[in-house]
Design a protein that fits this description.
alpha/beta; Conserved hypothetical protein from pyrococcus furiosus pfu- 392566-001, ParB domain; 2 domains; about 260 residues
């Protein structure tokens, strides 16, 4: 890379739809790898994309497979390191050296910096999280109270609003308290999808005793799904919630929820 050239670098949340991923220097997309990342999606291990803002577009340098998996999982935005002032040749050189002396950034890094910068959305999300007895953190995949699925929190707030985020965390706390998987991305997004479609209903009362089986069915389906139409994990999770919710209700009960996939 030309060291005499001024290059600006910043962390931003950007729309996945605005990222251009076609380039001659990157490896071809391995869709089997994309499926694997989607199937085993763990936001805490996701890292941050690297893009170059050039000619009015965000050109993807690093994170092609992860960005595909994020789209599959229903994400609309990603956190990225954004470079400005780079040429195509600079981007290609950075791609080749991207693993040299690089400490991978995580969504928690931007979250912390936004808290310190008093970013309104981030501060509100953090207040909602803490009000429901959780903390935003890293390295806590097996810690129920520590939420590492930070992009999921942003996605829920952006797509459905802060009230739905609050309801989501409240229902998880009252229904799945202590279950470590309950605060992973699929659960957060799936419960938010449920609330968006059906409201609060009597979610906690009907699902409190079924929480373990919800995750068992979800993981079984994710393992055994075919190669047909790819369905976002949170939609699958929401459908299983509906099935569990309806379990035990008479077929003609007005309380039964209708699933429209």
């Amino acid at each position: 890379m030309n060291q005499t050239k001024t290059t600006q670098q910043s962390l931003k949340r950007i729309a996945l739809a605005d990222i251009v991923s076609q380039s001659g220097y990157q490896r071809p997309t391995n869709y089997a790898q994309v499926q694997k990342i989607t199937r085993e999606f763990d936001e805490a291990q996701l890292g941050i994309l690297t893009v170059s803002y050039r000619d009015g577009k965000y050109h993807l340098i690093d994170g092609n497979h992860r960005s595909h998996a994020m789209r599959n999982c229903g994400y609309t935005h990603a956190i990225a390191v954004v470079f400005k002032g780079m040429s195509y040749e600079d981007e290609a050189e950075l791609y080749g050296k991207q693993n040299d002396n690089k400490r991978s950034l995580k969504p928690i890094d931007l979250f912390k910096s936004d808290i310190e910068a008093n970013d309104e959305a981030t501060v509100t999300i953090n207040e909602i999280v803490e009000a429901n007895g959780f903390q935003v953190g890293s390295g806590g995949k097996n810690n129920y109270s520590r939420i590492t699925a930070i992009l999921a929190l942003y996605s829920i707030a952006k797509e459905y609003g802060f009230n739905t985020l609050d309801d989501t965390l409240c229902l998880i706390a009252s229904t799945w308290s202590g279950l470590t998987k309950a605060t992973q991305a699929a659960s957060l997004l799936g419960v938010a999808e449920f609330i968006h479609r059906y409201g609060m209903a009597d979610f906690a009362d009907r699902l409190r005793e079924k929480c373990i089986s919800v995750w068992y069915d979800y993981e079984e389906e994710m393992r055994n799904r075919g190669s047909g139409r790819l369905i976002a994990p949170q939609v699958r999770f929401c459908r299983i919630l509906v099935e569990k919710y309806n379990t035990g209700l008479p077929s003609k009960s007005k309380k039964r929820l209708v699933w429209e996939g």
